[in-house]
Amino acid sequence: MRRSLATLPLGALLLTGLVACGSSSDDPEAPSADPTAVEGVTVTGDFGKEPEVEVKDLDVTKPVHGEVIAGDGAEVTEESNVNYRFHIVYGSNGEQVADNYAEPRAVALDLAEQPEPIIDALVGTHVGSRVVLALPVTDLFGKEGAAQYGLDTKDDLVMVMDLVSEVEPPLDGPEGEAVEPPDDAPTVVEDDGAVTGIDFGNAPEKPSGELEVITLVEGSGEPVAEGDDVTVDYFGVVYGGKQPFDESYSAEPVTFGLTPGGLIDGWVEGLAGVKAGSRVMLVVPAEKGYGDRANGNIPANSTLVFVIDVLGVNL
């Protein structure tokens, strides 16, 4: 169902992300702030909003970090997965390198997959904290990696990170109210909740030619919208076929950005509005799938049938 891999923005490459636990500076109970938590760097502004970063006489030979705003949420550990905002500038002149405060939502940061300077800076802080980290570019990437991303290998980076919230784990499977499908719908074959096949015994010999969205379990979680990151398990077959051309139930759930051009139109249109916890069947005509071209073991002009468990939205 995926058309192509998306190019990650620099910020995601650097660190591979509402109700915040931090408070506004206008709040009389706001946590105390230390705008100069790292010598040579001054960070001001409200938590959750793009900070102002002033760099003056910064001189670091190794990673240095500090807490600008102390949060009061869950403590961050090496196993934590948090949603965060980031603002990154060069240490020499304060020129912006990357930023995601203008994006619609924070992005996930899995601490277990981060380089040591990131782990050291964040572990022991709390959700709701604003953390500043200054370090030589090469301490994060090495010389070759920094050059690959077009970064000045002789410069430093200053990274401001707002820890917005904990990432909720995906559901283990569909959760909600079972819905009786139409009598002529293909039948889901499953083993202990995992989809293992789709039986077309009761289905019409030829598909309708329309995009069909058949709800099998109605979840009650967040509805999917175009542009969301959706975590799913899925099983896909060519209409009338017996073997899947792709599936995730035998492996791990996957996360896709629900964007036109990134996924086939049948997924983008068919999953819009579906709530987390739902299981749906999509019958996707060729024009909303791969059209008149073959794709791997999918013949040209194929109608595709998917069973999809929506396990999370923007986790």
Overview of the molecule:
With 315 residues, the chain is mostly beta strands. Helix content is 10%, strand content 32%. It contains four helices and 17 strands. A hairpin with a 7-residue loop joins strand 1 and strand 2 (52-55). The longest helix has 12 residues, at 137-148. The protein is elongated, with a radius of gyration of 23 Å.
Supply database-style keywords.
Chitinase A, domain 3; mainly beta; 2 domains; single chain; 10% helix; six-stranded antiparallel beta sheet; 4 helices; elongated; 315 residues; seven-stranded antiparallel beta sheet
CATH architecture of the largest domain: Roll
Mean pLDDT: 89
What number of domains?
A: 2
CATH class of the largest domain: Alpha Beta
Instruction: State which percent range the strand residues make up.
Output: 25-35%
- The Rg value, from CA coordinates, equals 23 Å
Shape: elongated
Q: Largest sheet at a glance?
A: 7 strands, antiparallel
Instruction: Label the structural class.
Output: mainly beta
CATH topology value of the largest domain: Chitinase A, domain 3
Residue runs with pLDDT of under 50 for 5 or more positions: 2-10, 16-31
- Binned, the helix content reads 10-25%
Number of strands: 17
From the N-terminal CA to the C-terminal CA, the straight-line distance is 21 Å
SS summary, helix count: 4
Order of helices and strands: HEEEEEEHEHEEEEEEEEHEE
Q: Summed up, what is this model?
A:
With 315 residues, this protein is mainly β.
List the helices and strands and how they pair.
Layout: H1 10-15, E1 41-44, E2 52-55, E3 64-69, E4 81-90, E5 96-99, E6 107-110, H2 116-122, E7 130-136, H3 137-148, E8 156-166, E9 177-178, E10 187-191, E11 194-199, E12 212-218, E13 229-238, E14 246-247, E15 254-257, H4 265-271, E16 279-284, E17 304-313
